[in-house]
């Protein structure tokens, strides 16, 4: 088992992609010294994201690459790559600068989009993971067949990705065992913490001998974040599981370089419902627009939408559900208590 720390990539969502080159050098160096084997850096959406309009990162991809390359001595450093956001020639620059791995992000339904990137990365000598974003939107058996296809394309490892943080340990086990039944490809897991189960799912993956477990310092990551690096290593200690990670170095870098950046206190109940329903936070702008237009509780709207689909949030469906909720509330004389103006940062008359 290896740990992949994604603080400097997934964690960048929390600060609007504003990690600096110096942040990258400082945090990556400490992770390297603490024994973390794989360190992911760059824009949260991956290579090419700034140019494709997915939020403007503080630094260019090349700057992040050079920052990691300057300080990572023992570990491999790498970046995320979504075909259509990233371009194939960006892999050449990454390989030239010493990148050790790349993770190709695709959905279960479009694994073929990743094939050119897998082939190019393998040709360049990179370790290649295929990350199946929103893995839970398809049953384990369907997911397993797709994972086998990625392995046949040359992926070194395939990832079960709990993008909405809605999987329980038995569900995580089902996906891992389904993959094991059809291919010998190593398995990685990327867990989010909407239901507070990221560490538990990571522990289940470890028990099932998964090859890579994603973690982040302080759990810093999109939505409610990820499996917590320092907590998971402490769990390994508690279990008497042999490892070479420096827990106190990890705790120190988490405390001094990461925790001061975290401004949200308490638990976001919208994120909780995203985990309950299996709703991916990338669709939240559609929910926001409908809630502000029809004055409905986003938590209820998310649950209604996900009863129809967890793979998308088309405006027509979201609007239809919002109108129905608003009409039902009027009939029942109900006024929800969710603070829409505060949560969405929007002033509009008549909102509760």
Offer a quick outline of the entry.
The chain has 352 residues and is an alpha/beta fold. Helix content is 43%, strand content 13%.
Could you describe the 3D structure shown?
The protein is an alpha/beta fold and 352 residues long. It folds into two domains: 2-261, Aldolase class I (TIM Barrel, Alpha-Beta Barrel); 269-344, no CATH class. The protein contains 14 helices and eight strands. It has helices at residues 21-33, 61-71, 89-96, 115-123, 140-153, 169-180, 198-207, 229-239, 247-258, 269-277, 284-294, 298-306, 315-332, 340-344, and strands spanning 2-8, 38-41, 76-81, 101-107, 127-133, 157-162, 187-191, 212-215. Strands 1-2-3-4-5-6-7-8 form an eight-stranded parallel beta barrel, surrounded by six helices. β1 (2-8), α1 and β2 form a beta-alpha-beta unit. α1 packs parallel to α2 and α10 runs parallel beside α12 (298-306). The longest helix has 18 residues, at 315-332. It is globular. It starts with a strand and ends in an 8-residue tail after the last helix. The model is unreliable at 346-352 (pLDDT under 50).
How do the strands and helices of this protein lay out in sequence?
Layout: E1 2-8, H1 21-33, E2 38-41, H2 61-71, E3 76-81, H3 89-96, E4 101-107, H4 115-123, E5 127-133, H5 140-153, E6 157-162, H6 169-180, E7 187-191, H7 198-207, E8 212-215, H8 229-239, H9 247-258, H10 269-277, H11 284-294, H12 298-306, H13 315-332, H14 340-344
Parallel strand pairs: 1-2, 1-8, 2-3, 3-4, 4-5, 5-6, 6-7, 7-8
């Amino acid at each position: 088992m290896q740990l992949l720390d994604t603080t400097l990539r997934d964690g960048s969502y929390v600060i609007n992609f504003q990690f600096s080159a110096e942040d990258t050098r400082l945090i990556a160096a400490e992770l390297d010294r603490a024994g973390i084997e794989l360190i992911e850096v760059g824009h949260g959406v991956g290579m090419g994201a700034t140019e494709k309009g997915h939020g403007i990162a503080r630094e260019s991809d090349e700057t992040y690459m050079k920052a990691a390359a300057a300080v990572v001595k023992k570990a491999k450093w790498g970046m995320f790559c979504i075909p259509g956001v990233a371009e194939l020639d960006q892999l050449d620059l990454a390989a030239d600068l010493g990148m050790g791995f790349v993770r190709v992000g695709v959905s279960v339904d479009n694994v073929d989009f990743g094939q050119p990137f897998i082939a190019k990365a393998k040709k360049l000598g990179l370790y290649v993971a295929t990350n199946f974003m929103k893995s839970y939107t398809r049953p384990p058996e369907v997911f397993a067949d797709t994972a086998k296809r990625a392995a046949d394309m040359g992926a070194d490892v395939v990832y079960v990705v709990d993008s909405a943080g809605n999987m329980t340990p038995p569900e995580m086990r089902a996906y891992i065992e389904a993959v094991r039944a059809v291919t010998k490809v190593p398995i990685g897991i990327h867990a989010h913490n909407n239901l507070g189960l990221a560490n538990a799912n990571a522990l289940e993956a470890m028990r099932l001998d998964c090859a890579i477990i994603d973690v982040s310092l302080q759990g810093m990551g999109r939505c409610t974040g990820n499996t917590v690096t320092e907590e998971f290593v402490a769990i390994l200690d508690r279990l008497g599981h042999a490892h070479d990670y420096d827990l106190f170095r990890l705790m120190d870098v988490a405390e001094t370089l990461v925790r001061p950046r975290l401004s949200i206190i308490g638990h976001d109940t919208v994120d909780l419902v995203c985990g309950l329903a299996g709703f991916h936070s990338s669709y939240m702008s559609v929910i926001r627009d409908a809630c502000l237009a029809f004055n409905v509780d986003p938590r209820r709207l998310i649950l209604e939408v996900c009863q129809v689909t967890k793979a998308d949030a088309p405006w027509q469906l979201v609007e239809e559900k919002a109108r129905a909720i608003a009409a039902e509330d009027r009939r029942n004389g109900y006024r929800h208590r969710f603070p829409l103006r505060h949560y969405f940062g929007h002033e509009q008359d008549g909102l509760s």
